[in-house]
Design goal:
This protein is α/β, with parallel strands linked by helices. It has 18 helices and 16 strands. It is globular and about 75 Å long. The chain binds zinc ion.
Length: 507
Amino acid sequence: MEEMEMKRIKIFDTTLRDGEQAPGFTMNLSEKVKIAKQLEKLGVDVIEAGFAIASPGDFNAIREISRNVGNISVASLARTTKLDIDRAWEALQFAKKPRIHLFIATSDVHLKHKLKMTKDEALKSAVEGVRYAKRFFDDIEFSAEDAVRSDIGFLTEIFTAVIAEGAKTINIPDTVGYTTPDEYYTFIKTLKSQITNIEHVEISVHCHNDLGFAVANSLAAIKAGATQIECTINGIGERAGNAALEEIVMAIDTRKDYFNCYTNVDTKQIMKTSKLLQNITGVKVQPNKAIVGDNAFAHEAGIHQHGMLQERTTYEIMTPESIGLEMSKIILGKHSGRHAFVDRVKALGYVLDSTELETAYAAFIDLCDKKKEVYDADIDAILNKETTHIPEVVKLETFMIHSGKHIPATATISLIINGAELTDASVGDGPVDASFKVIEKSVNKAIKLIDYKINAVSEGKDALGEAVVVLKIDDKNYRGRGLSTDVIEASINAYIEAVNKSYIEIN
Ligand SMILES: [Zn+2]
């Protein structure tokens, strides 16, 4: 009864490579390490930490992540050239389980217009790449970029050749998000029947969401025999994104009866991982996003609520607890005390050293003065903020706003810059614009505001406001986050944080 055995599906997370390379999702080194550690807790099998040769930022991230995670595979993307492979090895040499992810395009359109290579040249480059990578790596993954638009005969030939050369995983990506579930199923089945020794390697898929099929295509691939899924938290990634990890994992878990497989992911860590990424990047998922959206487990309609009260399974196919979402939000306040705060921090899964705990507790007390009820979301926001260390070259001393209907907004701000106090004022289109102008003038830098968002972190009219700004300073983008019950103050803090980041080389 071998067919009845549950098959394990490996989760290859590419949030820090494919996800990070999408516009608006750039992360600095400490943010990437923080995500990687959470991915380890989540229980993914492989973390693709970057594309080593692409930039010093990618290279450093791969190296730091290799040093900071435990017994988990860390991968770097690389083309099939010696230079790329050398650079990937340099970045990965301290990893406990290093993996190289080699790729070359195989479709006619990519070969002709991008690589300007013939099929024979691409085949030769692939085989030579795997052969060279073997000098350093035991764990080699090979991807045929744009596989679904490639000639299936050529794919058979190139995959057979790289397996013979020593590739342990072959990836059959839908790079441009073009295929459909039925078509992809047949495609993989056909390749499986044609590639020599394919039964000895992992079959991986990597799907993009251009037509909204990324998750469905990945699941169809599992049915066809894929054993590794490449995906990202919240489905971030190039263009319309990649397959969303949380959707893949929960589909497999909820429909075990249908897929007959499992993953090593600890589903209770899903919500926390999703929120961490949203907090770090400042990009929120839409409320109706499957699994992790704010409404994913909200039952508003009366008839649904009635059914839920009688029996949860009437309208609920999975529980909020299964993804680590606690429905009974515990509320803290001024009188909760230090002990309750420390307990809550532990329960939310944070491990802090004593300095971090002191800073966080001080921020909590400060918040309790402004806000009666402190929710878990507020504590998350404080902790995700206070554990990132950014030197304060510029500090906010005080600010005053004058604004109203038919009068121009004026901001007067006192800053401490390198220890010296400086007070200045400016008018602008509204109080936020006026405030930003004062800071720009005071720090004497040419600053362009690229993005500005404001969100309420928790509920209530005294909710903690979170401002996120992206500033362009000296041709580089810097993201800053600010938290306050006053949205102007949150905005000023966010702006100052981004400015402070520009003083240090963090990438
Ligand atoms: Zn991709």
